[in-house]
Design brief:
Layout lengths: L2 H5 L9 H12 L8 H8 L13 H8 L6 H16 L14 H7 L6 H22 L18 E2 L22 E2 L23 H4 L10 H7 L18 H5 L3 E3 L3 E4 L5 E4 L3 H11 L5 H6 L10 E5 L5 H7 L5 E6 L2 H9 L8 E5 L2 H11 L4 E6 L6 H14 E9 L8 H16 L3 E9 L26 E9 L3
Length: about 475
């Protein structure tokens, strides 16, 4: 264990300015704000050449041990405490031995209402914006724990006489030390190489870092000690990560899903139907329906033209057709999906225009022609990333009518609630740069939506779940009024 880690467990109440003084002392003397319990443990035990798979940072410990009954003054100290850590480079999205980020811990503890949670979300937004610039200019990023010389921090042996007989006493004169050997209870490394493929990686010594203050119910504590579910990201060339690879991968339509045939990646699933209905309704929300009825038979102002990017299972396209648009453009690139569309008669519908290809190519053609504009544009593709969406925004502003609406399936970071909320803010910021104002309508996503008729999870038949949030943030973007 380390002094910094001890401090983040708030061993003494009330939480006072003394905590701030001690934190500044440790950080100014070279202890990184991202120094992990795993790194301290491995150093204490002389474990080398074994890279921990988890990163239990000071921020994790704060979120685990922040008291439920904070006074207003204590709340202010905690806020200041976290602000300082972020100033020194604390990471907002590292995952600990339970595969939780700091924000995940607060959500599990029912503490989303704390300003601390919003600080974590805001840190995530800042980090993404900075990373984007770093990537843009090909700058080198140096981890702040790279090259850390643990021995220079010194080794702490609590001296009871100097600490008034209490190992929990906090004093600004405490040693600069990071590692406290008295906490070692297991001589094996936290992360064993062979355990990378599974197994319980929660060492007893790390479990202790997640003991609560006794204020939470037993179930919450037990959940902390459960086996972590650590998923390794797919290879960059996997169909789920690489668009070219995806387009070369065979797909399969099942009763309630579209999946990659061999890997079982969930491309689209029937549970999304209610969300698709929100999207379909949004595409027509900028249309003056009364004028459309009066002008039926006329062409110019009564035309309603919409574009859906990504056909998938055709859920939203069937909903769009039920609203009788004048022109319904569908952009789809995957050959298996295009074959399904031909088989189901989509190419033969009088008001449907199928753009067979990647939207990056097909929308470029529409922009060049300059004679097609949309009342609504919807986007829902597979194996694309947020940077692809940023590129799409360039086309949206060029193809959307002045009163048009842009929307999309908002699954950005939806496998973690805190990341989902980070991207909610990022989308608003980025769309504002294009003169679009995005409002999010909140809709509950009940857990039973993910159970089939046999009371089994719908995720059992796909490679992994891509949704774990209780609320869907439905985006509706329109040009700003100036």
């Amino acid at each position: 264990m380390s002094d910094l880690h001890d401090l983040c467990k708030f061993p003494q109440r009330p939480i006072s300015e003394e905590y701030i003084a001690n934190l500044n002392h440790y950080l100014r003397n070279g202890i990184p704000a991202t120094y992990t319990v795993e790194e301290a443990y491995n150093y204490i035990n002389g474990i080398e050449d074994v890279e921990p798979l988890t990163t239990t940072t000071p921020l994790h410990l704060i979120c685990t041990h922040v008291p439920l009954d904070l006074s207003e003054d204590e709340q202010n100290i905690v806020n200041q405490f976290v602000d300082i850590l972020f100033e020194y480079g604390a990471g907002w999205s590292f995952t600990d031995v339970n595969n939780e980020t700091p924000g995940c811990i607060l959500i599990r503890r029912g503490l989303k209402q704390l300003p601390l949670y919003q600080k974590i979300v805001d840190a995530g937004v800042r980090a993404e914006l900075v990373l984007r610039k770093v990537t843009e200019f090909d700058m080198e990023v140096i981890e702040d724990t790279d090259g850390v010389k643990h021995e220079e921090f010194g080794e702490l042996e609590y001296n009871n006489s100097n600490n008034n007989g209490s190992s929990n006493n906090i004093d600004s004169s405490t040693s600069d030390c990071v590692c406290e050997k008295n906490d070692v209870k297991n001589e094996e490394p936290i992360i064993k190489v062979e355990q990378q493929k599974g197994g319980d990686i929660l060492a007893d010594s790390i479990k202790e870092e997640f003991e609560t203050n006794g204020n939470e119910d037993e179930k919450a504590v037990d959940d902390v000690y459960g086996k972590p579910s650590i998923e390794v990201d797919d290879d960059i060339n996997a169909p789920s990560q690489n668009q070219v690879s995806y387009l070369d991968t065979k797909l399969e339509y099942t009763e309630d899903a579209l999946v990659t045939k061999d890997r079982r990646d969930g491309v689209m699933m029937a549970w999304e139907s209610d969300i698709m209905q929100l999207g379909a309704d949004a595409l027509f929300s900028g249309v003056d329906n009364e004028k459309r009825e009066e002008d039926s038979g006329k062409v110019q102002d009564s035309e309603v033209t919409v574009l859906n990017i990504g056909f998938g299972m055709g859920i939203i396209d069937r909903m769009i057709q039920s609203k009788n648009p004048t022109k319904h453009y569908i952009c789809e690139a995957h050959p298996d999906v295009l074959n399904k569309m031909k088989k189901d008669g989509w190419f033969d519908k009088a008001n449907v225009v199928v753009l067979s290809g990647r939207w990056q190519d097909e929308l470029d053609k529409l922009l060049s022609l300059g004679n097609t504009f949309f009342d609504g544009i919807y986007y829902d593709t597979f194996s694309e990333h947020y940077l692809d969406m940023l590129e799409l925004f360039d086309y949206v502003v060029g193809l959307l009518k002045p009163n048009g609406v842009f929307s999309f399936f908002n699954g950005l970071g939806a496998d973690r609630e805190v990341i989902y909320e980070v991207y909610k803010k990022l989308v608003s910021i980025d769309l504002e740069n294009y003169g679009l104002q995005c409002e999010f309508q909140e809709f509950p996503v009940p857990k039973d939506l993910f159970m089939n008729n046999e009371d089994k999870s719908i995720w059992d038949d796909v490679k992994r779940s891509y949704w774990s949030c209780p609320t869907y943030y439905h985006p509706v973007a329109k040009f700003m009024d100036f």
